[in-house]
Specification:
Elements (H helix, E strand, L loop, with lengths): L3 H15 L6 E4 L14 E7 L2 E6 L2 E6 L5 E6 L16 E6 L3 E6 L3 E6 L4 H4 L13 H9 L6 H4 L11 H10 L14 H15 L36 E5 L10 E5 L8
Antiparallel strand pairs: 1-6, 2-3, 3-4, 4-8, 5-7, 6-7, 9-10
Helix pairs in contact: 3-6, 5-6
Length: 270
């Protein structure tokens, strides 16, 4: 699932391509919004809120979430007004928005809906402080995490109600950098504000990169991460073999367990 830095970058690309332009076409390929048409309206802005994409137009918000496989692609139009061939199968397109310069296509979106601006809070009002938002509040994020001190840190970091933007890669990397096993209760985590600060620094450092690195090394392959996806490989710090397990959310039994990775020496079990 794309993390907050990826969604922030997608919002910037869409904003650069669409903001201030009149929509010349508008096609929502989901039954509930198939008749909604913003053709002739000005796209005001596009922003991210955690992992959510928000397009503001004509007193409404086009709200999308990429989930696991979704993405938005922007296609510059040729001189004759035609768009190049799409890079993804047409049957996966859920939204097509056109201007006189580009076509923006949302593929395999996990969520697509159109809301009135006044109702936006129903979609994103539950989110905690946005790590890449202008109103980032580290103290509030800490307070929200500590509101359930018995909850494992590895689950609390993924809960977008606590702080918005962390996905599974950052969850695992932050636990390693903090020297904390993912199963450690939040209330027992030493230096929780430091981990939150690291989350902010990592997303800021990677938001302008097409490839992510949490190690400061090359943004490719094993060198880009400390533990994520490296089960059975030696820890870069101590040489101990990295372990892997699944962590489930007891409060959401229908959600699939997510992968966790840790170094048993650098991150001892609680």
């Amino acid at each position: 699932m794309p993390e907050g830095d990826t969604v922030w970058r997608a919002a910037r690309e869409l904003n650069d391509a669409l903001a201030g332009s009149v929509l010349t076409s508008c096609d929502f390929r989901v039954p509930a919004f198939a008749t909604v048409d913003f053709t002739g309206q000005v796209m005001e802005s596009v922003e991210s809120r955690g992992k959510h994409l928000l397009m503001h137009v004509d007193g409404h918000v086009i709200h999308s979430h990429l989930s696991m496989e979704g993405r938005w692609d922007v296609y510059p139009l040729a001189a004759n007004g035609t768009a190049p061939r799409w890079r993804r199968p047409a049957h996966t397109a859920r939204a097509v928005l056109g201007t006189d310069r580009v076509a923006a296509v949302g593929f395999a979106l996990g969520l697509l809906e159109v809301l009135r601006e006044a109702d936006l809070g129903t979609a994103v009002g539950h989110l905690g402080p946005d790590l890449l938002g202008p109103g980032w509040d580290a103290a509030m994020a800490t307070e929200r995490l500590l509101a359930d001190p018995a909850r494992p840190l590895g689950l609390a970091l993924l809960d977008q109600r606590n702080l918005a933007g962390i996905g599974n890669i950052y969850r695992n990397e932050l636990c390693f950098l903090g020297g904390v096993h993912p199963a450690t209760p939040v209330g027992s985590v030493p230096g929780l504000p430091r981990i939150i600060g690291l989350a902010k620094r990592l997303l800021e450092a990677n938001k302008d990169r097409s490839a992510r690195s949490t190690t400061g090394g090359p943004a490719r392959g094993d060198a880009a991460v400390w533990v994520y996806g490296l089960a059975g490989r030696p820890c870069k710090r101590c040489g101990t073999l990295i372990r892997h397990a699944k962590m489930a959310e007891p409060a959401a039994p229908t959600h699939a367990p997510r992968d966790i990775y840790w170094c048993p020496r650098c991150q001892p079990s609680p």
